[in-house]
Structure prediction request, 252 residues.
Amino acid sequence: MPTKSTGRRIRRSPSSRVLPKRGKIVVSKDGPYLVSGGLPLRKELAVAGDEREPEKWTKGRKYRVGVSYSLCRCGRSEHKPFCDNAHIRVRFDGTEKAGRKSFLGLSEKLVGRELVLRDAYPLCSSARFCLPKGGIWRLTLRSRDPVKRKLAIREAGNCPSGRLVVYDKETGKPIEPEFAPSISLTEDPPKRVSGPIWVKGGVPVVSAGGRQYEVRNRVTLCRCGRSRNKPFCDGHHIRVRFSDDNKPRFKR
Prediction:
C-alpha cells in the first residue's frame, strides 16, 4: 500500500542523517553558549489556538550576528540574548546534568493505527503543542483517521525539544519538519514568559568537557539558568517567570 502524503518530507533518523557542514554550539564551563559558523538567530513566538494552548509558531525579530557570538546561559545578562559576563558576577553553576542516552534509548513507543510515536519525556521543555485536539497520544492511536493523523504529525513537528517524534508505521521512517541549521529564541505569550533556545537543523552541541551530544533535528537549550537537565531545557523558565528583557512581556 503506498504511503500517504503528509505534507512534510520524511527524513532519516535524527541521529543518523548527514550533519551540516557549518555551525556548532559549545557549552562553556559555567559560562555562555559559544556559537560559531554564522548560524542565523531570530525570535519565534508560540501562537495559541481555540483551546488556549500553542498550536503554531510565528517568526519574530531577526538578529544581526557575526560568524561567532555568545548567548547567555545564566539568565542574568542585561544584554540578552547575548552574554555580558554576568555569569561571573552571579557565580553561575552551569554544571551539565543531561544524560548520554540516545533519543531512541530514552524514549517510549506508542503504536497507533498508522503512526508510531516516540516520546522521550526527560527532554520536555513544556511547550505544550502536544495538548490540543485531545493530545498527540490519542491522535496517534487514532491515526487511521486522516485528520487525526495530520494533527499528530503537526503537533510532533511543532515540539521544539524533539521530545516527540512520529514515525510512519509502514515504512518505519520518522516524519520530521525540514529545518535549515539555525537558532530561535522562543517566546511563550500564553504563559507570559520567554522560552528556551530552539536549535534546529542538526546543529552539533558540544559539552564543556568536549563531548558531543547526540545530533538531532531539534533540541532546546536552557537560557533561564534553572534547568535541572542542563544544557537542555526542562521547563523551569515557566516556574521562575523568565523574561529575556527582565520586564513583564505580555498582556493578560
User: Anything to note?
Assistant: The first strand starts at residue 24 and ends at 27. The CA atoms of residues 35 and 188 lie 23 Å apart. The chain is about 10% helix and 25% strand. Residues 146-158 form the longest helix (13 residues).
